[in-house]
Amino acid sequence: MQKNDASPDQNPTPPYSSSRSSSASTSRLNEMSAEINQNLFGKYEVGRLLGCGAFAKVYHARNVQSGQSVAIKAVSKQKVVKSNLSAHVMREISIMRRLRHPHIVRLYEVLATKTKIYFVIEFAKGGELFAKIAKGRFSEDLSRKYFQQLISAVGYCHSRGVYHRDLKPENLLLDENWNLKVTDFGLSALTEQIRPDGLLHTLCGTPAYVAPEILGKQGYDGAKVDIWSCGIILFVLNAGYLPFNDPNLMVMYRKIYKGEYRCPKWTSPELKRLIMQLLDSNPETRITVEGIYKDPWFRKGGWKEIKPQLDKEFDFSKLCLDGESSSGEKYLNAFDIISSGLDLSGLFKGNNNVEPVDGERFVSAEAPAKIIDTIEEVAKKESCVKVTKKPGLGVRLEAQNGNFVVVVEIKRLTEKLVMVEVKKREGRGGPNNILLWKDKIRPQLNSLLHQPDE
Asked: Where is composition skewed (Polar residues) in this entry (predicted)?
């Protein structure tokens, strides 16, 4: 097997089986790029299609203001709802919001239209690590470099209560400097999902990388199954092929369950010992992240440069793209919306209204001053309604001796769009008081609603 020390610039000859699409479909994929608005929300110029899956397509794009290259993952709401995956997408947003690390693909913001949700994420120019491995096995030093970066990211995820559960070379990208970036947290789990027995129980992962305890269906430790997958990846980096592989899936699963594999003859004793600890079929005795940090083979090379990243305190306040409008108003990005309690599952509906029990939100392209003036004008048509402007961008409507109160606040999303947040309070009169807003005032505001592109 050819040893790979160079940048990926030759035609790959995959040394192990893959379900990747052939390059012959590239022109077909590029034609499909017309399905996305080429100027998304006036913020991103959308370019070529990078790839597609069952529920999402990923495009290269450019931030209009900064010129920064990004990747935009467009998720079909219809497919998500049809497959009952709304909670799945919400969890992926929640997870990626927690993570900011040099070796994890960064999520900048989340946008939505009537039919799609867009993840704006860091663009990894070097493509998949999978493509580089496909050209031949790595040297031991190069294997160690990428494994150190991988464990740095995985250890960080675990410290934040996140378990990836689908680590494999296809989900490891490379930046322009050929450094590793972990991506695709679609199957990830959070500490909050752990059952009273202290274990996770959802069966997931890619067959060749799945841990034996998952096959046992008895519950598993999310951190330990990630370590197993890291062991598979390290084996592949060094060997150029999978440790457990067989055309018959059940035969392969038996090999995984029993831990039956053989390292190639060129594997050093130190590396062989670490792989054995990583691919320990007993999760109770399998090596931990802390144990990996102390391993002699692991600590060689560039570990002294990577280790400080593990100890660094990341600034979560800058997790997403921030900015100000030309009038000095602060933008409200998608993460602000999430943290303020907006149930994004509402984005999967057929319209752009999101209606929690105590209010509603809608997006408008009108100027905030016009929105407030319109609400004030409509409300004053109802003689019983008292209208009071609030400091900043807001207005308060009150009627029926305080039994009816509606507070409207406006927050900027982009240079062109704002979010109108309506908070309603029921008084002694009960739900009937809210009908004043629902039946008389709210219908007259439909002209303010933004009608997004597909």
From this structure: 1-10
